[in-house]
What does this fold into?
Amino acid sequence: MSSIALSWIEIKSYTQSIGPGRGRPRRPEVCVRCKHTGIWYDGWRLVFCVVLLDGTPFRFADGIWLQRVACSLCWFSWVCRPAFLYPHRSFAPDLIEAAALRYLQDPSASYAVAAREHGCSLTMLWAWLSWLSDLTEPGAIVAEAMQQDPSLPAAELIPRRVSQNHVKARSPQRQKVLLRALQVLAAILALARSQRVPPSDPSPLRWFLTGQFLVFRRKALGCRPGWSPAFEVVQRGPTG
It folds into this structure.
């Protein structure tokens, strides 16, 4: 199991073609809330984030421009993000995935090593593993994957232990957190591999999170376990 980084070409193409004075992304065809077809451009947002680029962390030191749009009927506004970014995260999901797998799959890896290689702090890596362990139910994800592809070896999909040649968790509770985080990542990978049309995203975690957001409008925030509630869909008519 591994996380494959984006190539520089994809990100360079975006940064060179999108932004004030350079160009705009394609205008969305319908409102994500009320499905109205009249969408306006609504200014820019400059964000600073870190992605996994050619296998190493890359920080947008000068920021990256994101286009805002708004519905002309219900006035709901949102941000048009490139596929390699995820809402409300400074560190992109592919980098989180890579750092977690580095620690959980390499028997000799330590928090210090995995954190240094991925440009984050020890406490941040610790928090990411805790967040992953509460993200979803691995068994349910594997069951969904088996429905998509019954030939998957179900008994081999979920890891039973975290690889280690030293003590990676000094309490039974922490051991459960690490194992659960690894199982969540393995289950999401199995779901990605079970798709009839392989996902274009090289990061299974980012593909899974983005799919939940696009289909159900649910966000996986780093400050709480599980998912944030989906926003209410309200159809509004024109004002008098």
Observations:
- Helices lie at 8-17, 93-105, 111-117, 122-133, 138-148, 154-157, 172-194, 204-216.
